[in-house]
Specification:
heterodimer; A: alpha/beta; Rossmann fold; 3 domains; six-stranded parallel β-sheet; 24 helices; about 40% helix; globular; B: about 200 residues; alpha+beta; Alpha-Beta Plaits; 2 domains; four-stranded antiparallel β-sheet; 7 helices; 9 strands
Chain lengths: ~575, ~200
Amino acid sequence: MEVAQQEILNKTAEKETVNILGSVALLEALIAEGVDTIFGYPGGAIMPIYDALYDYNDKLDHILVRHEQGGIHAGQGYARTSGKVGVVFATSGPGATNLVTGLADAQIDSTPLVCITGQVFAHLLGTDAFQETDVINITNPVTKWNYQVTDATEIPEVLAKAFYIAKSGRPGPVLIDITKNAQIQLFDYEGYTPCNHIRSYRPKPIVRMPYVEQAAELINKAKKPFIIWGQGVVLGSAEQEFKTFVEKSGIPAAWTILGAGAIPTSHPLNVGMLGMHGNYGPNVLTNECDVLIAIGMRFDDRVTGRLDKYAKQAKVIHLDIDPAEIDKNVKTTVPVWGDCKETLPLLTALVEQKQHTAWLNKFRGYTKQEVEAVIHDELNPTSGEMTMGEVIKQLNDLTHGEAIIVTDVGQHQMVACRYAQFNNTRSNITSGGLGTMGFALPAAIGAKYGAQDKTVVAIIGDGGFQMTLQELGTIMQTGVDVKIIILNNRFLGMVRQWQELFNDRRYSFVDIESPDFVAVAAAYRIPGKCVNERAELQGALKEMINSKGSFLLEVMVTKENNVFPMVPQGCSVSEIRLK
Amino acid sequence: MSNQDIEKQEYNITVYTENQIGLLSRIAIIFTRRKINIDSLNTSPSEIESIHRFNIVITESEEVVRKLTRQIEKQVEVLKVYYHTNEDVIWQELALYKVSTDVIAEKVSVERLLRENGARAVVIRKDYTVFETTGHREETDNLINILQPYGLIEFVRSARVAIIKNSEGFNAKLREFERLEPGEEVIENEYLNKGAKVFTM
């Protein structure tokens, strides 16, 4: 079969056609796009592709997951750490519908994916055939693009478009549904041509210098400018350009959770996290700055709080690649449309070198208050039960900001994002927009495949872990090295916190029982440990980090701890509560 | 709420697209996701080979319409979206009316009413006659009311089609799209220097 693959390459290089199967053409397309890893699960309607994959095993590393949702979250984790397009295979019907949560997650968090689903024979479409589902229509709202292939001759061109659309402009998930007849159809293959233009698709708006100039003028006149940045900086690979802009302008900068790590946590101008559980200063001072410079972020409601009380006093500059984001939630004074990798250097050239010492000290003043009221006790408790914060702090002491931290959704996510140290970009992997519990374990598997030389630590709550714990099977079978920390508070903690604060402690179905997680891990031949006592924590974390291969560490933390600061829903960011 | 209602009016959204299966659904869900009713929807091939044109009518505020058009334009197979108020377009709807031929033959007044309303006969058979008229909603509605007493058997009205008054067609635009570089056209920023006025809920 190796000979056959060579023949495909030789003949197409000579501009000759070669008669191949649709399923083989699909794999040739993946290789041509530089794909090395696929996360997938076989089934009836995708069997011809898996049959072809049997001969491509040396070029394409297929990771057999335990559930298609795990497959797509792994694809997301891979895409987020590697910067490449994540590739996922699933069969028709339930295989395809199990992708939907991951597609929605990737769509809202702009993660580039190409998902391939098998489909029933074209002549059976619409007959309620076995495992037939209308995956194109189901996935319309949660994909950047989707397409059903019913003829093998379409495969090379459609795959080229799929990769181009997934990764260009504002990235997103693409789903290609391939009917079984197309997979087993022989056709004359002419080779693979990557796509770089679709006439109806504009990945990047043109950069308009007048707006860049207006933005620079506002910034240069500003007394209290404030930068808020999001994942756009990372997706645009503009971390260096961003750092140069921040350092030249001397403007304090705060991040959304998906933007974390674009400049290091320890950078002197990094003033912290925005949003509902973000830092005190960035939230309060959003309503005091005179120019707000939003870079590659979309003013999510968890960042803005109440919109009619959000930065009303400020002139707003918004840099974004997606024209639909401009004025969507917050009206912009000056929109700077375009890829921030291009627009940031233009802006940097025009802004004056400055230091905003007094203004920056204001942030530091708020930080001091927050440390005294919240952070110190959260990170350094000396008595009582363990806190989530101290686990993160101890982890920082061992990994020194070099680890990739993958979080699930809930209290532990907010605590980890607040306190984890990030020295590098693409090292905070979390479900930001969709808030998908169960994301972390499979995403951590993918994250490791996308960044093999890094330590990957998944931090997960006891609730979320039970949503996708079957992926321990994937870890067992592949031997992928993922460190798992379960922060177990025996509650669905974030919902409990809200019930405590807003529903008079009426704890409605948040009391969750868990199995013996260490025993579950052991059943999957993954070593583990459960820690109840503070004195054991550091040693256990060391054991986990130093273990060869995966390790599950369960830490029993205090049951009814709340994440503060907090901007209560419906309140302004400046009404953030410290307790 | 009341403030928003005052701002609401009919908008004609014109969408130029590739001819692609499933695109209708992708466009429709942009409205339904926001619980916005589509008053009228017409889709047909445009004057340019392979390019389709949607005419969509909704009743909303301009701000909502602007956001919707940007979301529609984000669809990969959508080339360009325009929106216009009724004043900015020439629009027509076509209506067909089926009435009993006997009634028409017997009552001279009906013939006169039809002529007055600009209707013309499309089909005349022994048992029934089909009339056609084009015009605005009030005009086609008017003829229903007139024919109702004479036994209107069946009525159907098309979606609205609209020609943009201030438009030079799409041919030049398409050539721009076929180039590799991004297009020049950007919607002007109407909020520049408006300070406090620019924020909404």
